[in-house]
Amino acid sequence: MAARLQVTDLDFDTIKTNLKNFLRQQSEFTDYDFEGAGLNVLLDILAYNTHYNAYYLNMVANESFLDSATTRDAVVSHAKTLNYVPYSVTAPKATVNVTVTSTTTDADTATLPRGYTFFSELVDGISYNYITTESVTISKTGTQYFFENIDIYEGQFINFSQTYNAISNPKSVFTIPNANIDTRTLRVTVTPTSGNTAAQTYNLVSDILDVTGSSLVYFLNESNDGKFKVSFGDNVIGQSLTDGAIVNMSYLITSGAVSNRANNFTAGSTINGLSTIDVSVVSPSAGGSDRESVDSIKFSTASQFATQNRLITFKDYETYILQNYTSLDSISVWGGEDEEKPVYGKVFISLKPKTNYYISEAEKQRIIDEIIKPKAVVSTDVIIRDPEFLYLLIDSTVRYDARKTSLTESALKTNIRNTILNYSNLYLNKFSSKFVLSKLQKAIDGTNLNAFFGTQSALRVQKRLLPSLISIKPYSVKFNIPLRRGTIGNRLTSTFFKTLDALGAEQEVQFEEIPQSFSGISNIQVLDAGVDYISPPTVTISGDGIGAEAVAIVVNGKIARIEMVNRGIDYTRAIVTISDGGGYGATAIPVIDSRTGTLRTVYYNQLSERQIVNSNAGTIDYNLGTLTINDIRITSVSSPDGYIRFTIQAENTVVSTNRNTIITIDGDDPTSISTVMISEQ
Amino acid sequence: MATVTTDTVRDFRDLDLSFNIHPVKKDINKHVGVKAVINSIKNLVLTNHYEKPFQPEIGSNVRKLLFENIDELTSIALQREIAQVIANYEPRASVSKVYVFADYENNGFSVEVEFSVINQSDPITITFFLERIR
Q1: Do B89 and A28 touch (CB under 8 A)?
Q2: Residue from the list A28, A36, A42 with its beta carbon closest to the beta carbon of B43
Q3: Any B CB within 8 A of A281 CB
Q4: Does B61 touch chain A if contact means CB atoms closer than 8 Å?
Q5: Which of the two ends of chain A, N or C, has the fewest CB atoms closer than 10 A to its terminal CB?
Q6: Are A92 and A257 in contact (CB under 8 A)?
C-alpha cells in the first residue's frame, strides 16, 4: 500500500523526507532524490515553508498559555487577566539621623527638603544617590538641628506631565517613559482645565470593590515593552478625565538591588546654608530588588489567584507577603497550634531578607500594619519572629590520587569549599530546607571524579547565642534536632567568654559537655510481677557502671513497681536480678538514661590544666536538642560579634528543620568548612 | 501470498526550473535522461554553501573562487571543487575528468567536465564558461 503523507512532523529534514516518500509513488518526476535536481529545489521550498508555519504555530500555541509562555509580554498579558501586576524595580531604603551644627545666630527651624540627596559609600566601586521623599522641618536644639529617623531611598525623582487629549487617546492610557520606575513611589495628580484648577490626587486601586464613578483612582499595568502604564476610569468604575486635563506623574527611578547594604552616607549639599553635617546610620540600606522575573510572574500569578486577595491559609500568607514585600529570600508561616507550646489564634511568620539576616522591628510592624492586617481574617494576631540559624560545620577527609590531577592540594581544597558553598546556596539558606550529608559527599566527590577515591565527612552543628552582658540570667539554646552524646575527644564545646568564678574573680571560660555524663539508670520496668512475695525482694543491678540502687514495692504478693534509690553513673549496659522475699518468678529490665547530659564551665590555666569553674552549669537534652544553661553572669564575650558559639555533633546526618529555623553553612567563618586531603596511590 | 517484485528501470525525469511551457502539450517542460543529469550538475556547481535552507553542506565554493586571481592555482582549486561536489551529491554521474583553463583574455575560466551516467555506456562531455558577473 502506498505510504501516506505524514503531517505531524515539525523538523525540516523529516518534512522533506516525508515529501520524498510521497513522491516515490508517482512516476511523472523521478529525480526528487538528487540534490542537484530542479525538483529538489521545489521540495526545499515546500519543506522550508511547512517547517516555518509549523514553528510559528508552535510558538503561538506556547505563548497562548501561562504555563508554556516564555516571552515577558505574553506572561504579563496572561497575568493581567488574573488581576496580577508584576512588581517593578524596588528602591532600597536606609534610615539615617542627620545632625547639622549651627551657630546661635541661625534660624530657629531648619528644613530638610524633599529630594535632598545623600551620597552612599562605594558599593562595588559606585556611589549611589539616596534621597528624601518627604520634606521635614524641625526646631533647633541648642546649637544643633537634629533630624531623627529620616528614610532615604536610592534613586532620582522624575516628574512627567502630559495633557490628556480625548480624541487621540480615547482610552486615557499614559505610558511611563522610564523602565526602572519604583511603582510604589508613583504619585498621580490631575489638574482639570475647566473650573477648579487645583491639582487632584488620584490613588492606585488593585480591586474595584470600593470604586464608584466618582472615585479619583488610577489603574496600573505593565505594558508590552516592560514599561508601566497608567489608565483612568470611565465614570462607571473610577472618574474619567476631562479633555485637556494635565496628568502629572511623579516617581522615583532606581538602580534596584545593587546598593543594598550600603551603610555609610554623606550629605550632598548644605542644609539651611550650613555645611557641618553629620550623618549616622540607623538602619543600613535594604529592601531593594530588581523587577519581577518572568518565572516569578508565572509563579505569583497562579498563587495570587489562588489566594483570592485574602489571607486565610498559611500559603495565602506566604504568597501575599512575597508579592508585596519583594526583597525576601524565603518565608515561613505557621499557625500557633504548631508551636512547641500551642498558642491558638496567632499566626507566626518568619522572614529572611535577601541581603541581611534580620528585618528591623520598624519594618516588621510596617509589614503587619500595611501588608497583612488589611487582608487578614479579623481577630487573628500576627507575630513576626526572627529566623533562627542553625550553622553546619563540615569536616571532610578526602582521599585522592595526586597523579591524576594537575591541581595543587590547596586548589583542590578551594574547589571543595566552593562545592560545599554551592550546595548550601542551592539547597540550604531557606526555611524548611533539608541537609543530607550523603548528597553533599556525592557533590564533593563530583568536584574531581577522576582523582578522588572518596570522601568521609563528619557533621557538626552550631548555634550562636547573644548573651546579655548586664544581668544574671538563664539561657536556653535550642538546636531542635537530636544531638550526639559527646566522647572525651569529641563533645560539645563553646567559644570563650568571661564570667565570675566562686571567688568573684573574672575568668575566661567556655562551656563543655561532661563526657559520658549522667548515664545512670533512669528507671526499672517490671516485666513479670511474680507471685507469693511476702517481703520486698532484693533488687540487684549489675553492669559496667557503679552505684545504682533500687527497691521493689510489693502489693498482694506481687511486685507493683521498682523505685530508683540511686541512679548510679557510667552505665552503658545493666541487668536487674530480683532475689529473696519468699516469692518467685519476677523479672524486670533497666532503662539506661541517655537523654540528658551535663554542661560545665571550664578554663585552662598556664600549665594547660583544666580548671572547673562550675561543674553544673546546665544540662543537655540530646533528643530534643536543647541546652538549658543555669543562671550565669556573662561579663564579656571573646568573639568580635558578641555571640557565644555552641558546637556539637548531630545525631543524624540528615538534618531538617521546621518553623523559623534556617540551615546554613557560614562561608565567612573559617572553621565552618575544614578539609583534610590524603594522597594515596 | 506470493510477493511479486517488479524491477523497473526508471528514467531520470526532472523539472525544468525555467518553467517554460511545452509548445504542444501546454504543460511544464521536463528534462529527461542524460539532460536531467547535466542540469543537476549545473545546479550543483552553481549552488553556494548555505544557499539551501538547513543544508549548508550542499554546494560548491565556485563563486568565491571566481573572485580570486585568474591563474593556474585557482584553476586547480576550481577543478577540485567541481569534481568534489559532483562526487558528493550526484550519484548518477561518475566523473572521469575535469579540465579548467584560465582564460585571461575573457577574464574567466572555461570548464570541461567529462563523465559517464550510470547505465549508459557513452561518456558525456560538457563545457561551460565561468566568469564573474559583478
Answers
A1: no
A2: A36
A3: no
A4: no
A5: N
A6: yes
Determine the straight-line distance between the first and last CA of chain A, rounded to whole angstroms: 66
Three cell numbers, residue A51: 517547517
The verdict on A26 touching B (C-beta cutoff 8 Å) is no
Do A37 and B15 lie within an 8 Å CB cutoff? yes
Question: Are A29 and B92 in contact (CB < 8 Å)?
Answer: no
Of B13, B17, B55, the CB nearest to A30: B13
Least Cα separation, residue A9 to chain B (angstroms)? 16
- Contact criterion met (CB below 8 Å) for A248 and A159: yes
CA distance A646 to A486: 13
A506-513 and A596-604 beta bridge pairing: antiparallel
Does the pTM exceed 0.90?
A: no
Nearest CB neighbour to A38, from listed B11, B43, B58: B43
Q: What are the tens digits of pLDDT across the range A80-120?
A: 888 888 889 999 989 999 998 887 677 888 889 988 999 99
Nearest alpha-carbon partner for A229 in A91, A73, A97: A73
A644: Cβ contacts below 8 Å, ≥ 6 apart: A464, A465, A466, A467, A494, A495, A497, A511, A634, A637
Cβ atoms A170, A178 nearer than 8 A: no
DSSP sequence for A267-304: E-S-BTTB--EEEEEEEEEE--BPPPPHHHHHHHHHHH
Compute CA A481 distance to the chain's CA centroid, rounded to the nearest angstrom: 19
